[in-house]
Specification:
alpha/beta; 7-stranded mixed beta sheet; 6-stranded mixed beta sheet; about 15% strand; flat
């Protein structure tokens, strides 16, 4: 292992968020062979409380030399192997905030522990056989989940729903490899291989790998969310649309054009998918230097967004300003939002919609009256579904690393088929088959390199 992830010694870290004047409890986690000794040095449990595994003790944390009281706390004991890391683990449950947990952590470091590296607790859980790599990544996804669906998918990974099919595919490849190697070593004693049977088995494995690869886009969407930019001319109701959608007053709404000078952000969930909504400044030519900066930020937000909501004022009709903005964003995934529909007659609405360029998606809203939000969300989900992002199994979603390994496994299997078709010797069959086995093993950690571990666990928070 690299120095970054050296797993010897006893480690300590704050395992909860540290926020001034917030949080009733802060936890300092310690793992390693000296965890119990350190706890007995720092923690005083009055009375006849029993220091046994999976017990919670009440008492006081004191400085071991001065006996100065640091905090009134609880101590949770989890002895190996019945702990997260399969090492002795203790947790000091202190009062929340900053000072208590920082002082307790400092005492741990002064008395034999070292500060844990990012993800080192979970790394130890992996190295000690408690988790495989897919489960470790599931923990990171669960911590970072931004929607119930994302959390559910992360839990599926944590429960081994990805590891199980990967292990089965690898086992199937190993069975084929064993059949081939048996013919190489004992060719005279065994009947010849049936090429068609071997190819059929490889095709089944490749088909299942393809199914798993197809979950990547959905996985990325659940993890990173969808970035949506609301753009349009000043005073078309962009801020009203954001407020109605988010059911809040995030954006200032007035009758004066140019009120929004900067990008206003709101976090929503649509159909289980996290959505970052950006309300942008109205796009128009202006001599106001502050507004000009806001307009330029609006253009950048539109170009960086996954989806653009071009908002039009129905009462003003389709204007030259609308056309100019449309030409700037029409290359992006786009929904035309015809807002303020409550201010026009039905006939006027039909005339307006006939003037607007053809678009795959067009809805009408009256944001100030909270009307049309359901139609907007349905249109967004329809665009997502048209990209087949939700077509895969919703309980399963691979990440980029897993997708790369699966793709490599699939390529290796295709090479095996090509080798068989070329009627090359059996030894050649095994080369790419071993490549597929190794690629599948990298997903769960049965075949893993130091650089892969560094990359995965460095993304974790310190106390996880």
């Amino acid at each position: 292992m690299s120095e970054v992830f050296a797993t010897s010694g006893t480690i300590a870290a704050i395992a909860t968020a540290v926020v001034p004047q917030q949080g009733s409890v802060g936890i300092v986690r310690v793992s390693g062979s000296q965890a119990m000794a350190l706890a007995q040095t720092l923690f005083h449990a009055p009375g006849r409380q029993v220091w046994e595994s999976h017990q919670i003790l009440y008492g006081y944390i004191r400085h071991p030399q001065t006996q100065q009281l640091v905090d009134e706390a609880l101590l949770l004991i989890m002895k190996a192997p019945r702990s997260y890391t399969r090492e002795d683990v203790v947790e000091f449950h202190c009062h929340g905030g900053i000072m208590a947990v920082q002082q307790v952590l400092q005492l741990c470091l002064e008395n034999g522990a070292r500060l844990a590296q990012p993800g080192e607790f979970t790394l130890r859980a992996f190295l000690n056989g408690r988790l495989d790599l897919t489960q470790a990544e599931g923990i990171a996804d669960l911590v970072g989940a931004r929607s119930p669906q994302a959390a559910q998918t992360a839990l599926a990974g944590l429960q081994g729903k990805l590891a199980h099919p990967i292990r089965q595919l690898r086992a199937n490849c190993l069975d084929i490899l064993a059949e081939i190697e048996a013919r190489i070593d004992f060719e005279e004693d065994l009947p010849p291989l049936d090429d068609k049977v071997i190819i059929s088995e490889i095709e089944k494995i490749a088909a299942e790998i393809t199914r798993l690869i197809e979950t990547k886009d959905k996985g990325e969407l659940l993890r990173t969310g969808l970035k949506v930019a609301i753009v349009g001319r000043p005073n078309v109701g962009k801020s009203s649309l954001l407020n109605a959608w988010s059911q809040s007053d995030r954006a200032i709404v007035t009758d004066l054009p140019g009120t929004t000078r900067d990008v206003v952000e709101s976090q929503l969930v649509v159909g289980g998918i996290p959505v970052q909504v950006l309300d942008t400044a109205g796009i128009r030519e202006t001599t106001d230097q502050v507004e000009k900066i806001g307009v330029e930020r609006s253009r950048r937000a539109a170009n960086a967004a996954d989806l653009v909501l071009l908002t039009i004022d129905a009462s003003a009709g389709w204007t030259e300003g609308d056309r100019e903005i449309y030409e700037q964003v029409q290359h992006r995934p786009l929904i035309l939002v015809i807002n303020k529909i409550d201010l026009v007659e039905e006939g006027e609405s039909k005339i307006l919609q006939s003037q607007i360029p053809n678009s795959k998606s067009r809805i009408v809203t009256a944001a100030a009256q909270n009307q049309g939000i359901d139609s907007l969300e349905k249109a967004i989900l329809k665009i997502i579904q048209s990209e087949k992002i939700q077509a895969a199994d919703m309980d399963l979603a691979i990440n980029q690393r897993q997708a790369a390994a699966l793709t490599q496994a699939k390529i290796s299997l295709e090479q095996v088929e090509a080798t068989i078709a070329q009627q090359l010797p059996l030894d050649f069959w095994t080369i790419d088959l071993r490549g597929a086995i190794q690629a599948l093993g990298e997903i769960t950690g049965e075949e893993v390199t130091e650089s892969v571990l560094d990359k995965i666990f460095s993304k974790f928070c310190i106390g996880k």
